[in-house]
Amino acid sequence: MPVRRSLLAAALGAAALLCATAAPAAAAPGEYITVDATGRIAADGTVTLSGSYRCTGATGPAFIGSSVSQGTVRQQGIGGSGARCDGVEHRWQNSGKPYGQTLRPGPARVQATVVELRPSGIVLLPVFHAQSDRDITLVQG
């Protein structure tokens, strides 16, 4: 079951990032997401991004989605993870391999989003809690 949950989190995180470009996040007071200044690239090409977040008031499942772009490499989704919107600051970390692209050590741009899938009748609607865009440095290791 953990694999299934991880896949669901990754898929929903990627969907959140796609929606975030169309509807920017409007964080409630006290809600935020940060991105650490350094990301890592493993020998196999897996990218790991991290940061912290705080969100409140979620009534549905919440997720952290992240993506990275670098030079001519367009925005690539990097994993997805569950979020706890309990008003406490938490750390997040997402890992994944860019699809069909190779990232290299050096400057990159990261976008991270906290999104909730809130029940509304028979559908789940995305509610954006926070979004952050940051220039970072990718390092090997």
Automatic annotation (TrEMBL):
Does this entry carry the keyword Ion transport? no
Alphabetically ordered keywords of this record: Signal
Q: Which domain of life is it from?
A: Bacteria
- Which residue positions does the secretion signal occupy? 1-27
> What is the organism lineage in this UniProt record?
Bacteria, Bacillati, Actinomycetota, Actinomycetes, Kitasatosporales
* InterPro entries in alphabetical order: DUF6299 (IPR046266), TAT_signal (IPR006311)
Q: Which Pfam families does the record match to this protein?
A: DUF6299
- Please give the organism: Streptomyces rubradiris (Streptomyces achromogenes subsp. rubradiris)
The DUF6299 domain is annotated at: 30-140
Name the UniProt record assigns to this protein: DUF6299 domain-containing protein
Signal keyword on record: yes
